[in-house]
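hey can u check if this looks right to u? its 91 residues, i copy pasted from the old doc so theres a chance i mangled smth
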Amino acid sequence: MRSSDGSIIKFLDIPNTNSLKWTADGRGISYIRNIDGVSNIWTQPIAGGTPVQETKFNSDNNLNFDWSRTGVLVCSRSERTRDVVLIRNFR
């Protein structure tokens, strides 16, 4: 975070991600963190300290998420499937 003159007010160690959201109360920044192919939502408190794991999923991926004005966490999830097809002697 930077002040209006550009000086750093506080440095937050948040993983590189495209999904950063302020919490509804403005006291933290939430993000998607992927560990061993499973993604969960974590929040880094602005005051500092240890990040808080908001979700405890053990499979699949979070696509996106947001906080409602009342502080309810909403997220969309997806299962990643991959199929392989071998085509031989195609004419």
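The beta strands are 20-22, 28-35, 38-45, 52-53, 61-67, 73-78.
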